[in-house]
Amino acid sequence: MNILLITANYAPEIGSSAQIYQDLANGFVKNGHTVHILTSYPRDYTLTDGDRVRQLPLDTEENGVVVHRVRHPSKRDSIIVRGLEHFYIPLYYFRKYKEICRSAEIKFDACIHHIPPLPLYYLARWIKRYDGTPSIFNMQDYHPQELTDVGFMKNPVIISVLKHIERKAYKNADFLAVNSHGGIPYVVSRGADAARVGTIFNPISLDIIDDPSIPGNFKELEDIDGKFLVTYAGILSPFQGIDIILDAAQRLSHRDDILFYIVGDGMERERLEKRVTDENISNVRIHKFLPRREYLNLIKSTDVALISLDERMKAPCLPGKTINLMAMKKAILALVSVDSETADIIGKAKCGEVTPPSDVQGICDAVIRMADNAELRAEFGACGRAYLMDHMEQNVVVHQYEDVIKRLNHMNPITKNQVN
């Protein structure tokens, strides 16, 4: 088949969505499909120092995947530009899409869109009108719900506009792939046809995860041998509630053997760094984003890995980092609402513990419990890997998408049970 993956972030950018789509693309290629990526030109703030100085080709082939990059305005710290970006990206992408189809003389069997940005719905609609190609919406986050949950978006007009787009997108999508079981009732309640919705988890390539050349010597490199390493690695935004990690670290300052690393970047980074300095939180270190191999070194060296989400978030999302932690057999401590999708998956997989972000002492108790029980950590890690092999391994996910694409092209009805 000819498959187009549409994502705003792709390698060499650092982040879970870039990694997820690279693994998905490589999985399709392994199965003999022709794969194109339509993406934005990498933003400086998502690149390593070395990649920032490189000029990347707009059209190139990388490991059998044909990558098409589009330049457009982007600015991390401008809320206005970031908001507008969601609306003008479809215009830039559609112009590139037509160019790809003409120059490559190709007709795609399906387009898989990373959502958000939610207005990619318009791109899917334009593509359908242009050449009839069906679209699959891969729902990673749910806007505007997540934005309003944490009070990040308050303007009633903008919220109303986004809710209108959301309803249109769900109602008219050829297929909605949600990455958690709770995503199905969520989108159906907002207008989606239940027969065109299914749970497809994010994929991960174990070839990379199990690469023996990844050393696991992060502690040695950072001169922290002998420390019990607790890490949070990911985006630092208002949605993550990272302050809770700092609160717990302060309360655990009496444990000289426990050290917290917060690795990533985002809108909250400077404020968090200032808080660590001002409050002299000596058992916390904040580290810049790491490229994938160095990130895997970090996780391989980690004793307990944190997942953190603001407790107010009610949308059924599963953080992208979850699959990495499970694949690398890490004990997980999830600082999330007990009725969240993340808590549900942690419970089903039996790969860690869940503690509400509001319970700082509970977080401290869980860290100590895991620090003092290596057998418990090993059991959590083994269970997480086993669950991942059944639901999230690259081949499992690729086969699910293949089935959906074939049925879309043969106009057969799709039921959620056939994808779940």
Automatic annotation (TrEMBL):
All residue ranges annotated as the Glycosyltransferase subfamily 4-like N-terminal domain in the record: 22-200
SUPFAM superfamilies to which the protein is assigned, alphabetical: UDP-Glycosyltransferase/glycogen phosphorylase (SSF53756)
Residue ranges the record marks as coiled coil: none
Molecular function, one GO term: glycosyltransferase activity
InterPro entries per UniProt: Glyco_trans_1, Glyco_trans_4-like_N
Lineage: Archaea, Methanobacteriati, Methanobacteriota, Stenosarchaea group, Methanomicrobia
Organism of origin: Methanocorpusculum parvum
Pfam families: Glyco_trans_4_4 (PF13579), Glycos_transf_1 (PF00534)
Listed name of the protein: Glycosyltransferase family 4 protein
Domain Glycosyl transferase family span(s) in chain numbering: 219-385
